[in-house]
Amino acid sequence: MNTTANGRPARLRYLSGSFHVVAPGDYVVCAVTGTPIPLANLRYWSAEFQEAYVNAEAAVKRHSEMRDLGKI
Prior knowledge:
Strand content: 25-35%
Radius of gyration: 12 Å
Shape: globular
InterPro entries: DUF2093
Number of helices: 1
Strand order of the largest sheet: 1-2
Low-confidence stretches: 1-5
Organism: Glacieibacterium arshaanense
Protein name: DUF2093 domain-containing protein
Largest sheet: 2 strands, antiparallel
């Protein structure tokens, strides 16, 4: 990923189909893998859990985990 040593994490509010930048930054961190995701590459997130995911596989994994925990 293209985060630099000077990059700052952004704080986002994840909405259904979009997100709102609460605090500016260059990237967010995947809730499953810990991988930094540049905002320009952010495509997967959960409005329900307010989390970002690096790819579809990570999103499906988190959804399965939450289902197994009875949270959805």
